[in-house]
Amino acid sequence: MGQILSNPIIDKEIDSGTDVLTAFGLCAMQGWRMSMEDAHVCAVDVGSENSKHSHVAYYAVFDGHGGSSVAQFCGVKAAKVLQSQESFQQGKYAQSLIDAFIASDREILRDPLLRNDHSGCTATTMLVSKEQQRLFCGNAGDSRTVLSRNAIAKALSYDHKPTLVSEKSRIVAADGFVEMDRVNGNLALSRAIGDFEFKSNPNLPPHAQIVTCVPDVVEHSIDYDQDEFVILACDGIWDCLSSQECVDLIHYGINRGDMNLEQISSRIVDVCCSPTTEGTGIGCDNMSIVIVALLKDEESVEQWFSRIRSKKHVANVSFEERRRAVFSFYDFPKNDADVFAVSTKKTDEHGNSYTSNEDEDTEMDRNEPPAGRSQMDMFSLESLLGANGIQVSQGGNNVSYIHGSALSEVLASLGGGGGVNQAIDEENDSDEKREKLEEVKD
Q1: Do the beta carbons of residue 73 and residue 120 sit within 8 Å?
Q2: Integer Cα distance of 36 and 383 in angstroms
Q3: pTM of the model
Q4: What fold does the segment set 4-325 form as a domain?
């Protein structure tokens, strides 16, 4: 699961937009992870300036791993890289997605800083062509794009896992191996932008490297009587929901009549954010989701909502019920209004329990540190120390405990190392050892 915070960061990036072809609602949240490594693109028209062809919409979700650098690069540059491809300017959209993925790798390698960066990102992308009345989805990795077709989930991408026969064959042929379901025992996915340590064979083309950036591309002819919306999301969402469950939740939100796409995407993130770190590990990842409505000619977003509601699709499972089902191990409050309160209940090494609750609708509470504690205490300090293998956990009486093998090494270098771990774990430390702990915290 990787390093996680003691409390999730539930501030959200939300956005929405519309054009003549599509409308979208976006939500992205850092959650329990030490940093936000997702990025996205919602470009409702990328075709008009650089292509002789008519309106083209472009959407993408980039899920970073090993750092945020490559994902952030793609979030900023991906649309321009796509527009610069000759295949895109010629209206060859399926090929243009492949060309853009490969060109993104090349652009990163030209950057003097990023070329030595060890991060990477999965990418799931979609082009919608008004002229061709088609969807084009390019995917590399385990993010996913799903179409709602008469309320039935249709895959527009396929997860690239190292255990798939086709993926494992490429990995082994490139002198790699799959161990513990990971590429070379390390990477849990087999296609990504970046990750150049797995693309170092100069005798192999991009599509044959141990990890390749080359996407699979799925095309789909749009039937506006049946095709309703498309979901693009990172694996933080798909770890918690199946494709059909996500489609059902969106229809539930549409049928309520009081939610827009932005609000529905935000509530799905709430459904998927784990209430505690003591479960299976799902729900503790960064989360990003984009819901894209497919608009008929001259159809407004309000008319689209009315049209989808008129189909009367049955979506009986509410957001609250789905959250209870996803995290069935957790004892949620009986009142549905409290189901979405992020709550952690842990027991520290001294048997003290503590709880932290945040209401997502209270902006002031989100921006102000808890009473009696500085903002640096649990978030900034954790980020600073966590990168070096030092963990911070909260004990009773508002006392923070710092632990981890890296801390032992630091204290050992300061004072000879004898019995350091024991000194940290015991509640009644000597004054001298407490002073050393305070030096590290400072």
Answers
A1: no
A2: 11
A3: 0.78
A4: Phosphatase 2c; domain 1 (3.60.40)
